[in-house]
């Protein structure tokens, strides 16, 4: 099997000490092994290997440091009660990785090979998947440009790497609604930019506003569009939904926001439940008006890390808006329970979203 | 002196072989040493050192790879005929580095310390400064976020590094006018984004359009604004100037373009020469109209790498526009001769732009 994939495996001799299940945090601890694969223009992708988790040795002129040619993905593996290992829609992550690669002029990766490699890596490090409530194994595939050359053009050399981190719930408080600052100056991404790619640049652009928001007591920033500063885009690193008068609204995918896999799954669930849903333009004005009219029922962010993150309060141009009295709404809660139930294997996999990892 | 700066110096034992003066290329060869300094939230910037040029050893979870928290600078050192070493307005680069740091939530660096460190590094590697016509030592200071944590928030650890590369002329062809593709879909940066910071994200955003342009026979892309797709911003990694009916126009600094040091120097030269100059909005439409009316006299890009890069032809929405019959204009040429003359020490330093590096 390992021969078939042509993945060279070098196992760690002494395993690392695992963190306590209630001390996981998010993205701090890493498993014993990592996957790596190299690219050169002449050979293409080659030298696939699973090796002990280790530092990268990189020329200081490597293009990733200077010109940001890099993409990444984020997904999770779950351990079920009956000790199976499940991945949530991993094919979608590999497809999106390649869409990001295209935008960043990075050579495409064979998606099914990457998924097989990931499964093998998980299998080797399976003891690292936590089983406590709200825990999972967070998986971070990423590509970096390694050619040492100070010219802003696509690299001739890349590395594709997968690292994994056992994680606790993203928000320590659990499903508690958070306070959000609506950012009207700083812009995350604009149409024509890279907003629909999962690439470092978009996160770099968000750091300053997010720090400002945090200093003022807000958990995240709600981003408005870069052209009109009017239409809602995303909240922090999540897609965003609003329920107004029984209808659920979410920003359409027009090129400036990420095509979230949680977002897509929620759209499917809502349709399945016959809840009307609109993917289109939503102005921040409209949300404030709905609140004034008493028709703003719920708001929540969605993403792999937190799954569902209810919004309890918005702050825009000096105006506070409290949603659902700052409590978690019924739909937010139902979506959270349904999604996490499917993900951790306790609920039936109605939509065939889960992929099982075979233990070896 | 070395004590005073508290820079620990570790010299390379065996020096590398230097490339031939006519084989330098740009940003490919690096000198024997590099400068490094570390930052932690607890200690601040510390452990300044000059060490042999060497690979960085970095955790694969380092934030720079995932969230693009990084900034850089680019400047040049020149060897004069009488073998002095000159830097062109290096204080401006250190100031801009700190403005970029602010936008990227990176801790500020002591500008005069950084400049002293650079001078020491240059002095140690002075044999690497080429002296052929059009050659120089390209200097790349940069900061990278090194904390290993998969959360998109500012890093607690950074490294500030300076590497140096002996370079030939940026364009092999010399001061020959280039063909430029006017990009109307893809956007480099938008107001509210990071366009005025020198940070990886802006270059990542430009790769795809630039590759497309290159495949179609164009040297660079001319960027339009991200809101209207109408106003001229920059050309490739350069600021841009147009001479129309005796008046020189360049886009104003409104937040989406880099405050180029070559641009600023040209504005000073033009004023000194009593040539009228306007820093403001220039629509691509206006340039095409001027061409039709026969009043478009010259166009050129400006930056540290190429100094002046005349534009011989534009292509916008299927319309070609030839400037100055594809020849280098008088002003472009005069600016190039004046700037390079000051930089390599053959002309008087009228504006006190040059900083001499003491040899030790
Ligand atoms: C900017 C951004 N938007 C939205 C999302 C949500 O995407 P997904 O549901 O695929 O995790 C993410 C990733 O978590 C993100 O980084
Ligand atoms: C995007 C961009 N614009 C303009 C410039 C020109 O700036 P400077 O004249 O300081 O080199 C540069 C750097 O060379 C750049 O990267």
From TrEMBL, chains A, B:
The keyword Amino-acid biosynthesis applies. It is an enzyme of class 2 (transferase). The modification N6-(pyridoxal phosphate)lysine is found at residue 198. One of its GO terms (biological process) is L-valine biosynthetic process. Its EC number is 2.6.1.42. Pfam families: Aminotran_4. Its cofactor is pyridoxal 5'-phosphate. It comes from the Bacteria. Pathway: Amino-acid biosynthesis; L-isoleucine biosynthesis; L-isoleucine from 2-oxobutanoate: step 4/4; Amino-acid biosynthesis; L-valine biosynthesis; L-valine from pyruvate: step 4/4; Amino-acid biosynthesis; L-leucine biosynthesis; L-leucine from 3-methyl-2-oxobutanoate: step 4/4. It catalyses: L-leucine + 2-oxoglutarate = 4-methyl-2-oxopentanoate + L-glutamate; L-valine + 2-oxoglutarate = 3-methyl-2-oxobutanoate + L-glutamate; L-isoleucine + 2-oxoglutarate = (S)-3-methyl-2-oxopentanoate + L-glutamate. Keywords: Amino-acid biosynthesis, Aminotransferase, Branched-chain amino acid biosynthesis, Pyridoxal phosphate, Transferase. One of its GO terms (molecular function) is L-valine-2-oxoglutarate transaminase activity. Belongs to the class-IV pyridoxal-phosphate-dependent aminotransferase family. NCBIfam families: ilvE_II (TIGR01123), PRK13357.1 (NF009897). This is Branched-chain-amino-acid aminotransferase. It comes from Paenibacillus antarcticus.
């Amino acid at each position: 099997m390992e021969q078939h994939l042509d993945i060279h495996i070098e196992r760690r001799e002494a395993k690392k000490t695992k963190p306590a299940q209630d001390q996981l945090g998010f993205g701090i601890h890493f498993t014993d092994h990592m996957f790596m694969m190299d690219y050169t223009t002449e050979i293409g992708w080659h030298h696939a290997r699973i090796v002990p988790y280790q530092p990268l040795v990189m020329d200081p002129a490597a293009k990733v440091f200077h010109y940001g040619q890099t993409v990444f993905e984020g997904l999770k593996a779950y351990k079920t009660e009956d000790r199976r290992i499940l991945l949530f829609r991993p094919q979608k992550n590999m497809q999106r990785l390649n869409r990001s690669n295209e935008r960043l002029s990075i050579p495409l990766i064979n998606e099914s090979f990457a998924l097989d490699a990931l499964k093998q890596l998980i299998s080797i490090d399976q003891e690292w998947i936590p089983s406590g409530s709200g825990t999972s194994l967070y998986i971070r595939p990423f590509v970096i440009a390694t050619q040492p050359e100070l010219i802003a053009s696509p690299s001739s050399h890349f590395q594709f790497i997968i690292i994994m981190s056992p994680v606790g719930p993203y928000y320590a408080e659990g499903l508690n609604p958070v306070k959000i600052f609506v950012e009207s100056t700083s812009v995350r991404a604009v149409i024509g930019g890279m907003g629909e790619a999962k690439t470092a640049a978009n996160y770099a652009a968000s750091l300053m506003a997010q720090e400002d928001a945090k200093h003022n007591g807000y958990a995240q920033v709600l981003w408005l569009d870069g052209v009109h500063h009017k239409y809602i885009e995303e909240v922090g690193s999540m897609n965003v939904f609003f329920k107004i008068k029984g209808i659920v609204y979410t920003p359409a995918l027009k090129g400036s926001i990420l095509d979230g896999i949680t977002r897509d799954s929620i759209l499917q669930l809502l349709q399945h439940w016959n809840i009307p849903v609109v993917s289109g333009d939503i102005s921040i004005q409209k949300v404030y008006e709905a609140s004034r009219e008493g028709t703003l029922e719920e708001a929540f962010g969605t993403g792999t890390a937190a799954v569902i993150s209810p919004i309890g309060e918005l702050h825009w141009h000096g105006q506070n808006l409290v949603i659902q009295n700052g409590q978690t709404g019924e739909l937010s809660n139902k979506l959270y329970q349904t999604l996490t139930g499917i993900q951790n294997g306790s609920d039936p996999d109605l939509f065939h979203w889960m992929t099982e990892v075979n233990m070896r």
